[in-house]
Amino acid sequence: MINVKAQAYVFDAYGTLFDVHAAIARHRAEAGADAERFSEIWRIKQLEYTWTLTLAGAYVDFWTLTERALDHAFARIPSVSPALRPKLLEAYLELDAFPDASETLGALKSRGLRLAILSNGSPRMLAAAVDASGLAASLDAVLSVDAVRAYKPRPEVYALVTDRFGIPAQEVAFVSSNRWDVMGAASFGFRAVWANRGGMPDEYPAARPTRVIATLAELPALGL
To answer: Are strands 211-213 and 8-11 parallel, antiparallel or unpaired?
Structure first.
């Protein structure tokens, strides 16, 4: 039984606060009919590279992996012109925040809670996204896996939060739209909240989320 309220709320960045498909959305007309499939491949390969490198005991920063994944998407979907490359990379640095992000973070911050981002993103990427979104005022910390040179769901990544705030894992509410990330956070001992924006089926039965929400707007009412 958890008797102490969560003292900190920590958010994944990409897919949770920031729309990873916003870059292609800004250039959909130029990308053409295969724009959505192109964006899906870009995202899938970006994540795949983080997992395979971490399993191999290697590390390459997330921006480089984002570039490599983009080049793979161009090779897979030749209908999308490689001339879009610089525009898409520029857009990725300033991804749109989801509409529910700012208000939710503001509501939690007004209660005196500590808020942070914990992300695979490189420090440069995260700084650009946070500044562009206007979320900086609500955040006490922006934590990047770059500090430990390994990607989620490695436990040392989640330990960045407990080290930063000096609180036990069970006093952290961790929010992610990625079920595999929720698995990692739950296994570490966080109160893991799955923001299941896409209505996806559940996975990882041995590491279930504390709560499941459809939008971040539901978060302040959970009373974690």
So the answer is: unpaired
